[in-house]
Amino acid sequence: MEPPKIWREKRQRYLGIGVKCLDCDYKAFPLTSFCPSCGSGNVQEYKLAEKGRIIQFTQVNQTSNDMMANVPYAIGIIELEDGIKVTGQIVDIDYSLIEIGMPVRMVLRVLSKDGTEGLIKYGFKFIPVD
Fold first, then answer.
1. pLDDT single digits (tens) 76-130
2. Domain count of the chain?
3. Cβ proximity of 100 and 10 under 8 Å
4. Are residues 23 and 38 in the same domain?
5. By the 8 A CB rule, do 58 and 25 touch?
6. Domain that holds residue 60
7. Nearest to residue 53, comparing CAs of 122, 100, 7, 109?
């Protein structure tokens, strides 16, 4: 990912910002200037819920060069408490212990690095909660 794109997306990547439609109350992620449900342009930024549960997951064994340091890793579809579904890496747990329905919390972590002296990309991942 190139630096200009990272700067454009930093609020949604670092803060978990989506949109909420003021006409139909639909919530969506990532940021967009219109409602994906009703098409209205009457939307405002919305802070995503930080907690949710795993609804599906898999283990990744082959990936791009900038993610190879993480292999193997788990990635999942997380349904947040506000109903929004997002994908993200599941960390700080042994893959064999991950379960459907497991509660998780969104945290900011390093996603990848471009080489030893390159750009460090941050974003959200998910950790298990009690």
1. 999 999 999 999 999 999 999 999 999 999 998 887 777 666 777 778 899 999 7
2. 2
3. no
4. yes
5. no
6. 49-130
7. 100
What are the tens digits of pLDDT across the range 22-72?
999 999 988 899 999 999 999 999 999 999 999 999 999 887 776 777 778
Q: Are 58 and 105 found together in one domain?
A: yes
- φ, ψ for residue 123 (rounded to 5)? -175, -175
Chain position carrying tokens 């959200």:
124
**What is the torsion angle, in degrees rounded to the nearest 10, for the CA atoms of residue 104, residue 109, residue 115 and residue 116?**
-130
User: What is the DSSP pairing of strand 85-90 with strand 51-60?
Assistant: unpaired
How many whole angstroms from its chain centre is CA 74? Answer: 13
Task: Return phi, psi of residue 15, to 5°.
Answer: -110, -5
Q: 101: which 2 tokens? A: 């329905």
Strand ranges across the sheet with 27-28: 27-28, 17-21, 43-47
Q: For residues 6 and 57, what is the distance between their CA atoms, to the nearest angstrom?
A: 26
Helix (H) or strand (E) holding 27: strand 27-28
d(CA 124, CA 16): 8
